[in-house]
Structure formats: structure tokens, C-alpha cells
Amino acid sequence: MINIRLLILDSLKTKLEINIIVMKTKIRIAIITLLSTLCIQAQQPKGIIGNTNWMSNWTNFKPANTEYNEATNIIAGTIDKDTKLTKRNTYQLVGVVYVTKNAVLTIEPGTVIRGDDKTCGTLVITNGAKIIAEGLETDPIVFTSNKEIAERKPGDWGGIIILGKAPINTIGGVHILPFDLEPMLNHYGGQDAEDNSGILKYVRIEYSGRKLSAAKELNGLSLAGVGKKTVLSNIQVSYSNDDSFECYGGDLNMTNLVSYRTTDDDFDFTQGAQINISNSIAIRHPFSSDISGSRCFEVDSYDKIGNTDMSKKLTKINANNITLVNLEENNQGLVRESVYVRENTFFNLTNSVISGFSPFILLEGNIGNGDVNLAKIAFKNLIINNCNGGITSEAGGANQAIQQFYNDPDFQINFTKIKNSELFTTSNIKGNPDFRINQNNTIAIGN
Predict the structure, then answer these.
(1) 208-225 pLDDT, tens per residue?
(2) Residues 33, 70 within the same domain
(3) Pairing of strands 391-393, 361-363
């Protein structure tokens, strides 16, 4: 009997030891998983990234000082067959120029196109046509003002408009832009999310965005119903008198965009736009903002809900590795929130840096009324530097609920107080700026 009891006790002891070993193993795995997750989050690069300063060579932060050749050729009227613009010529864009009938407009690297001030030179790539403007890092394509150096200003000419066949959420699925364009040529939208309107790569757009009236304002680059096979990368819009980039619906991947000293919004999305934007930067200047409420991002799903087919997709923006920076000094208070999000809109901002805004985010008043609305808007792994206020609502009473929602540690929102000169590699816009995070700043890089 004693031997049997001893055997039973030994068996129980063995089982207990096995259970303890299993439990310890599970705990170790859980700890390793947690530490791995924290390490991954800490090591995720924030803001614009790159092994080198990808803004070098092709961008220009001082276009007012740049001499361009006088125009040798005039572009006017309608381009209805495949056409090529060459670097050896400088072109003057006169009036509204339409590329139609599925024609392809090809532009060589290094070509300069100067928009005419008197006739508001504007380039429109109509539904079905294409633009192939593929510059080089060392030889970008430039769209700029036709004025002399001392006379250039925002809104000297119209800008570039691309009309595609990708989905939008307005009733009927097809719409027109409010820019006084030719009625038979001014339409966009459709069912082809894969639509291809061409290539814009290593392109600068300077001094565009003419305000036709209080309600009709051209942008630097207007993308209406543009599909995801369109290539949009390494594009700088500077000194636009309205938005730098505006997407009306469409389905796009955009990367390496630079918006500098725009008067209104840097990136504006509406009409059910489905956009992935990455490794891009908005640089705001206090004396280039207007009274309308200029922001880096303005995101909505519609202008009027009555014009919207709510069975179609709402605007959804995934913004990753974004840098939003305000160059304002001495706290003049001329630059306000960096992002404004309206109701019924999905907006995800991750691995990004926002510096110098008041507040950091502004939400439309009724968004903060419940977690269902807030769940559409995610902010994760961010550095919020020198911002007065966090994520706030137009309806002040919702701020407590908003703060409670976004205080979750999983969001990894870090508030800092660092000078731009310390936060970024080179923040002096007068030289060759490099707004990648300063790798010597351990707070900034998340270690």
C-alpha cells in the first residue's frame, strides 16, 4: 500500500511539475511576444523616410529666384492625337488646353511648361486620355508661371486637372468639376477602379491655383475619378493659391508628394476617394494661409449628403509615414489644426510626425458622439510635437470622450516639445531641407 501511495504521489508531483513548466513556457512566450510588439512599434520609422534625402535635386523651395527660358512654343486649344513635348523647347500654356479622344500627351524629362497668366493657362486630361510626364530626379518636368521673377505669385495660372473613370460616390456615379470647363469634356467617374490616366513622376507645379470666383477655385493638381493604375509619385506643388492636391473620388496610391506654402489645404479628399498616401510631406508657412481654415489634410465624404449615393463607398484615406510641419515662428497663431475630418469618413494616420499646430486634429462636431464614429478614425505611432491641444472636436462637449478613446496605449501617440532644428535632420528651408527625423534624437525615433 505504501508503495502504491508513493507512486501516486510521484505521479501527481510529475504532473504538477509538467504543468508548472508549461505555464512558465506560456508566460515566457507571452512576454517575448509583448516585447517584440513593443520593439516593432518603437522601431517603426516615423515621418518621411528614405536612405537618402529623396527631396534633393528635383524639388525647388525658392522658385521665385529661378530663371526659366522664354517660351518658344505655344500650346492652346485641343490635343486630340498623341503628342510629345520635348526638353529643347519651352512651352506656354494658353487658355484651357484639353487632351481628348484617348490621346496621350508625353512630356520629356527636363521640359518646362509655363502657364499663361492673362488666359489662365490650364491643362485638362479628359476622361480616357493620358499624360505621361515622367521626369528624372536630376531632370524634373516643371509647370510654372509665365511671369518674370519679380512678378510671380500664387494663382498665376490654373493648374493640372485629370479626369478619370474610377468610382465616385455622387448620385449617378458621374460628375463635373465647378471650374467653367467645356461641358462636353468636363465629366469624371465610372466603374473602373483600375483606370489608368498615365504618369506624373518627378514633376513640379508652381504658382498655380487660380481663384475663378469665391466658389470656383482651381488647385495645383486636381484628380477627379482617377484610377489606381495611374502613377503619382515625386510631385511637388508649391505656392498654389488653393489646394495643392485634391482628389474627387477615385482610387489611388500616391507617394513622395511635397506640398509647400499652399494658400488653402495641402491634401484634400472628397466624394468617396479611396487613397493610400505614403512618405509625403506638407510644409506650411503662416503667411501663405488664408482665412478659410487652411489645413494639411481636409477629409470628407461629400459636400452635400443630398448629392451622395450612400450605398457607395465613403472616403477612406490611409496615410502612412507623413510629415506635417509648420514653419511659423514666435507663435503668431496664423496656422491652426493640421487635420480636419468630417463625419462619415475613414481616416488612418500612422507612423507620422506633426509639428507646430493648434490643435493637432480637429473633428467635425458630431463625430465625437460615440465610439462607432471614432472607430473610423485611427491615429497610431505618432510624434505630436509643439502642438497646442490634441485631438479635439468642434463640439467642445465631446472632447472628454474623444480623449478617453484615444488615450489607449495601443495608439502610441507621443507628445513632445522639441525645436524643429532638433527634430528634423535639416529644417532650414532656405538651404537644402531634409525633413527626415534626426537619427540622433532618441525621443523622435522612438527608442
Answers:
(1) 999 776 667 899 999 999
(2) no
(3) parallel
